[in-house]
Amino acid sequence: MRKLKLKPLSLHRENLYAKVAGHGGKKPVNSPGHDTIPVENREGTDSKKGSDGRLAWGSRTDIGLVRSHNEDSFLVQAPVFAVCDGMGGHAAGEVASSIAVQTIAENAPLHADDVLLGAAVEAANTKVIEGARTGKGKPGMGCTASCVLIENNKVAIAHVGDSRIYLLHAGALVRLTHDHSYVEELVDAGEITADEARVHPSRSIITRALGNDPDMYADHFTLEVTAGDRIIVCSDGLSSMVEDSEIEDIAVSSVDPQTAADNLVSAALEAGGHDNVTVVVVDVLDDGSQEMRRRFRRRWIRGGIIAFVAILAVIAAGVALYVGNSWYLGDNNGTVGIYSGVPFEFLGIKMGHLVDTSSVQTEDLPATVQQDLKEGVPVDSEQTAQSTVESYRDQIDTDKTDAAVTANRSQANSDSSDSSGSTDSSSTSR
To answer: pTM to 2 decimals?
Structure first.
């Protein structure tokens, strides 16, 4: 399996779409030089177009100017698109190509898996062989098969024969498939040029096709594309009549897929229309990158929210652990109380609660201690709190004892002074 990757670039065609939409959805017109042969009302022509928001497509098949019937079939079943060019003459080639596109449609994978898409083409080969054997067609009938399945920025490709798949990227046309033909082998060997191959007398000899070999296998690979890319799937009725350089010019200058398909068929007819010509054009409008960016942003935002919540949870757990292991002394309606937590409020919620009371009156303590108790005095543990309360009690008792002793001394001194004064008075009067 080959994987190709092209650098994402945008085409001016996106601006053209916007201009068309801005003019009331009017049908776009051909650019100068691409309106030589009208194709819409010709006998034996058919087309399908549409859009699903991610892809826009258009298609056109035409009997040509020489053949009496159309052996081409095409599949437009988004996201699967295919062209099959029938071989085997009247009532045979068209049967083979019809069987092929129906089988590919029934067996195409749900995702851009080129291996499974190749398997669908190989299943179509089996069905064509069975059709010839059971009389649904004719012995020797066969067809080419070139198909794509587009999913976001991936395109799965499966290919057999000389129908082709092109990619228009950044204004440059790239042929993605390799013809399974005699003249292509001559080109690969360097014996003729690609332009000579278009007019070589043996150009109709196909070296690999559906319908003649049960062991036939399909070429398959995956390609990465980007919004603005245009994919062209066509029968050799186009590629054998119109040079790749002209296909590129028409593809670049056509505003939408249906216009591009019509212009390419018209160019093949103008060049002679020697064969049936079928063209399917698909534009990649949305390669999924915007959705991927949106998903990334959503994941980033969700991740940020989860991380923020986790951080808050850790902080809350830390705060709860700290608060649960903290103690302080406070004023409990005039007495010293022992509290668990911290002496603060958060969003109106008190972060501490009373655990034990005491008989120690705050008014008996020094003014500075009373003020500290109103604000909360942190301590290491409940035992430390109990010890501090006892120290307050002892301090009060000591202060009261000292005050009593001082009062007694003052009273004694006062009594002594009074006694001395009385004695002096008595002596003087005698």
So the answer is: 0.68
Nearest to 330, CA basis, from 275, 378, 379, 376: 376
338 strand-pairing partners: 329, 356
> Computed from CA positions of residues 18, 23, 24, 28, in that sequence, does the dihedral angle turn out positive or negative?
negative
Decide if 233 contacts 104 (C-beta within 8 A): no
349, with CB counted inside 10 A (0-12, 13-18, 19+), is exposed
| Residue of 293, 176, 270 whose CA lies nearest to 232 | 176
Place of tokens 């690999």: 208
pLDDT digits 0-9 by tens, 365-418: 888 888 888 888 898 888 898 888 888 888 888 877 877 777 777 777 776 666
Distance between CA atoms of residues 285 and 227, nearest Å: 5
Q: Looking at 31-40, 155-164, 245-254, which range is the least confident one? A: 31-40
Q: Return phi, psi of residue 143, to 5°.
A: -165, 165
* pLDDT per position as a tens digit, 49-60: 999 999 999 999
Is the separation of the CB atoms in 75 and 120 below 8 Å?
no
User: Residue written as tokens 């399996």?
Assistant: 1
Determine contact, residues 119/106, Cβ cutoff 8 Å: no
Residue 7 pLDDT? 41
What is the tens place of the pLDDT at every residue in 145-184? Answer: 999 999 999 999 999 999 999 999 999 999 999 999 999 9
| Largest interatomic CA distance in the chain | 174
Q: What's the pLDDT tens digit per position in 7-17? A: 444 444 444 45
